């Protein structure tokens, strides 16, 4: 073996050397062939290798992160600071950019007062947690083995590790039983499932295999992810698209009120995580009664000018592992983290746009995803009802499942705006939606490492509130493509049901379907 050295030079079975130890760039501290094992005619090979656990990246991962500690925040102090700040120029401003500058200047100053930015070193262990009394026992056995080379100590160490694993197994069973017998069984089971799933899906910075080389540098990895996600979309063409107007009425604006802004804020999850602007949802939820009034001014100014703020157009992307080889970029999907303030505004726009599209019957009934009164359950119910009905009539049923590759990333922005116009969306709302889609950038964030910004040239923002509704509006007319079968859609998941009368007429229908396709 090239560059490897075989270190065993004493027979391990009779007069033959059958049990080998190969080393590369390391010299064993000691190596000896001991007595035979009780259950084998091979002798034991005891080898000690140098290993510095203090600097091992295998057992511990150290990260540095910035954060704001919201645990002991005096929220009454924040209410006072916001009330005493000078907002006159903000409310008199007719410029969205100037108003935003004042907004962030005041709020960042308040944040630095109530929850200043801190730095922390996080050391994360990948090892199985070992309770204290087991750790003491393992240290004692380790000393015993190194002192006398007693093989029975190694056996007892193995038994101790097995006991630790059994403790963890019993603890897991108890967690499951507690969740099953609790009053909120479903919520607790989902919480337990997510708790066990997250460590495997949201691991630390992955190692990426690129052109046969294993890459471990965090900066290179984040930029590889950034390039990969940026190239998932399609270039925007300049061709004009003729779209038939399908709306009799129109929607040109969204109504922002103090109440619906409060409702949107209350719908947020209380969290200390944040987007690129650094303001977390907990700040808006506990920021007091003045914040909705301030947001009302911003949202009205943004909509009336038909301009979505450039500050909100950059989002963090966290690669989320799906399945398969962790070293392959294709086995990760992008999760966008957008500014919280943008999500508050998007929620109000999304609710009113959704009500309009449904009331005007502009969204086909075949679509069940991300809409009020529709869900995965309604899709399944209508699907199985159709299948059972056709089978009860003696018809044969054929179901065609279609997988649309990278559907959310392949949305053409110009075509989407054209379709929104055909649904009766007018300015200034249409201009605002066009601004929402255009000139966006994304930054891949893994732990505290950031990639260079990359432009987003196509697709709807996965992780935004408005993105799913815009995608549904974009894909809506796919239902017109099927004259024979009946489509069922949940966002981009599509299945088409074909039913055929008795066998004498099956061939005719299949030929007709093939001709129409």
Automatic annotation (TrEMBL):
Superkingdom to which the source organism belongs: Eukaryota
Residues annotated as domain Reverse transcriptase: 301-517
InterPro entries: DNA/RNA_pol_sf (IPR043502), RT_dom (IPR000477)
Annotated TM spans: none
Protein name (record): Reverse transcriptase domain-containing protein
Organism: Schistosoma mekongi (Parasitic worm)
């Amino acid at each position: 073996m090239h560059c490897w050295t075989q270190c065993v030079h004493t027979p391990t079975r009779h007069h033959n050397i059958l049990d080998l130890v190969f080393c590369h760039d390391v010299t064993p501290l000691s190596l000896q062939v001991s007595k035979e094992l009780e259950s084998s005619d091979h002798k034991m090979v005891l080898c000690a290798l140098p290993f510095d656990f203090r600097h091992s990246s295998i057992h511990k991962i150290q990260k540095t992160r910035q954060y704001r500690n919201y645990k002991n925040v005096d929220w009454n102090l924040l209410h006072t600071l916001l009330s005493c700040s000078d907002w006159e120029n903000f409310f008199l401003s007719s410029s969205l950019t100037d108003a935003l500058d004042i907004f962030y200047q005041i709020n960042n100053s308040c944040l630095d007062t109530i929850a200043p930015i801190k730095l922390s070193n996080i050391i994360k262990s990948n090892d199985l947690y070992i309770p204290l009394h087991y750790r003491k026992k393992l240290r004692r056995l380790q000393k015993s083995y190194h002192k006398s080379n007693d093989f029975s100590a190694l056996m007892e160490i193995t038994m101790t590790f097995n006991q630790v694993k059994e403790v963890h197994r019993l603890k897991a069973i108890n967690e499951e039983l507690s969740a099953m017998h609790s009053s909120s069984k479903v919520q607790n089971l989902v919480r337990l499932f997510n708790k066990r799933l997250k460590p495997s899906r949201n691991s630390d910075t992955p190692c990426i295999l690129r052109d046969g080389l294993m890459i471990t540098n965090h900066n290179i990895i984040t930029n590889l992810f950034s390039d990969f996600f940026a190239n998932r979309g399609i270039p925007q063409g300049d061709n004009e698209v003729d779209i038939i107007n399908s709306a009799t009425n129109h929607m040109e604006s969204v109504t922002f009120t103090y109440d619906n802004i409060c409702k949107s804020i209350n719908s947020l999850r209380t969290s200390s995580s944040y987007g690129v602007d650094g303001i977390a949802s907990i700040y808006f939820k506990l920021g007091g009664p003045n914040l909705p009034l301030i947001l009302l001014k911003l949202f009205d100014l943004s909509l009336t000018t038909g301009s979505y703020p450039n500050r909100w157009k950059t989002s963090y992307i966290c690669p989320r592992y799906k399945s398969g080889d962790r070293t392959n970029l294709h086995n990760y999907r992008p999760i966008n983290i957008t500014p919280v303030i943008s999500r508050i505004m998007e929620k109000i726009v999304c609710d009113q746009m959704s009500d309009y599209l449904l009331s005007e019957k502009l969204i086909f009934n075949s679509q069940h995803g991300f809409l009020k009164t529709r869900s995965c359950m309604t899709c399944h119910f209508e699907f199985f009802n159709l299948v059972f009905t056709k089978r009860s009539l003696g018809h044969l049923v054929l179901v065609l499942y279609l997988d649309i590759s990278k559907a959310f990333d392949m949305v053409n922005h110009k075509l989407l705006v054209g379709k929104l116009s055909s649904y009766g969306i007018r300015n200034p709302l249409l201009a605002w939606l066009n601004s929402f889609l255009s000139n966006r950038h994304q930054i891949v964030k893994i732990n505290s490492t950031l990639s260079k910004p990359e432009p987003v040239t196509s697709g709807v923002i996965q992780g935004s509130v408005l993105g799913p509704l815009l995608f549904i509006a974009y894909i809506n007319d796919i239902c017109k493509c099927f004259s024979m079968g009946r489509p069922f859609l949940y966002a981009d998941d599509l299945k088409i049901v074909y039913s055929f009368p008795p066998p004498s007429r099956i061939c005719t229908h299949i030929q007709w379907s093939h001709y129409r396709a």
